Model the fold of this input.
Amino acid sequence: MVYKFADDQGVYLTTLITYYGFVSLFPLLLLLATALGYALHGRPGLQQRVLDSALAQFPVIGDQIGTNIHSFHGSVPGLVIGVFGSVYGGLGVVQAIQSALNKMWGVPRNSRPNPIAARLRSLLLLAAGGAGILATTTLSALFANAGSDDSSFRVGTVVIITFALNVVLFTTAYRVLTARPVTIAQVRAGAVACAAIWQILQWAGTFLLGHTLRGATATYGLFGIVLGLLTWIYIGALALVVCAEFNVVRVQRLWPRSLLTPFTDNPDITAGDRRAYSSYAKTERHKGFENVDVDFDEPQEQDPH
Done:
């Protein structure tokens, strides 16, 4: 899986997803705060509870906005900027994930959806993700207002439901954004692992960064928030890519791999290497009438002299 990640330039795929994720996050939170300012005007208590539930999905910056919620009011400019910014960044995130998944699964370029169809898929997943966040927020608010005194039970229930919703969301993303038929069984393992990592990232981001930045000066605290947020998004994107690579390697049986392939052009390649390299070549097929055949020469004997 490590070699497949390196062959697909997984670091660059992760960085691209991180960039669009960072761009979309601030307008999304601005849109959320502005919409709440309109929808719950005159009910600051309920506004605070709903916002806290939603911002819990975004450690570091979510705490900062939640602390300063009194400064946000419903406004037309904020709503417009939030809508356009979140759509631009959100589409960029999903488009980057879509491109990465097609590259990982070896989908030829001519078999990938056209620009309009690709963006329609992205909008569909954005709607599903928004519905998931809305459902999690609603459930969190309902359990927070429940009459039960067992807070540990409420927290545990919310965590389980949130984890289940994340599994469904990642499974849907891995299937919908891949331009080839994949079954739930083929992507289930990676989706469960990604949902677990995402849950841990939320806890770690809230706990570690919250304690680290507490008491910092305004200047260093601002830099800490931005760098911490970038790191948090990058690790989340990395988990998404690595778990997808795990699914591909497992389904296409791209193992074992020769240990020397990254270091020499004349290794003794394995059956897994042959399947992987054949997939990479066929991925670059641009037209349906283009034929791509892959042959391998036997490794040459090294001259001892």
